[in-house]
Specification:
- With 121 residues, this protein is an alpha/beta fold.
- It has six helices and seven strands, in the order H-E-E-E-H-E-E-H-E-H-E-H-H.
- A hairpin with a 2-residue loop joins strand 1 and strand 2.
- Helix 2 packs parallel to helix 3.
- The chain is globular, with a radius of gyration of 13 Å.
- It starts with a helix and ends with a helix.
- 31% of the residues are buried.
Amino acid sequence: MDDDQESTVIGERAGAAYVVRVPVEADHELAPDLQTVLDAALDAEAERTVVDLSRTDFADSTMLHVLLAAQRAHRGRGRPMVVAGPFGHTVHRLFEVTGTAGFFELAETTRAATGAADRDR
């Protein structure tokens, strides 16, 4: 993976899901890009949105606020949004300390969140 992909939010269709891949660091500088891609995800023709945090080593409260707003927007449109790991220590701790883990549908992996495991059976 090149340096540009390591620092950029990427949104792409994966089967029935629209996957939003968050880079290694998700902070206030990345927040506008993350918001833009999550807005695009909501407008995409997909059954659900999956936010892939498996590569994210650092996340701050700004990223959390973007995710919370996106979750509310998705619920408002009746579209599931799943936040997928595996979660790094900092991301796990952010959800734990803020008490927000219960607000999200969480999945162990992006593969599980996209339903790929079910299709392989």
